[in-house]
Backbone:
């Protein structure tokens, strides 16, 4: 399916993408344009945001499980799967100005 979101690392080395119908994140080498890693994690088909750590060693992916999961790019494994509060769908991730916290936003709604 089509891409739901993507992000480029700060050092322009990697591109991480999530796509509809896929339960893993894909990591691409921007110099060779080759797929170099995949990470099974949350529901990537509904991912709303991808955030690289300041040193580009980890990625954080916001999906709609609800929650956020992270992976270590140096060790090829999912590190953490956590849920920020009771968000129905996490749709954006940002660092605080001092880079000590990740801020997550989402929306909650009820349909009758």
Residues:
């Amino acid at each position: 399916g089509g891409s739901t979101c993507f992000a480029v690392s700060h050092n322009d080395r990697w591109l991480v993408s999530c796509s509809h119908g896929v339960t893993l994140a894909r990591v691409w080498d921007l110099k060779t344009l080759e797929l170099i890693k995949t990470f099974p994690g949350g529901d990537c088909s509904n991912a709303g945001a991808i955030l690289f750590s300041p040193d580009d060693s980890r990625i954080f992916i916001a999906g709609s499980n609800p929650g956020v999961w992270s992976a270590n790019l140096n060790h090829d494994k999912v590190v953490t799967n956590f849920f920020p509060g009771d968000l129905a769908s996490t749709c954006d991730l940002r660092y605080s100005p001092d880079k000590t916290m990740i801020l997550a936003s989402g929306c909650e709604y009820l349909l009758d």
Remarks:
- The chain has a mean pLDDT of 79.
- The two ends are 29 Å apart (CA to CA).
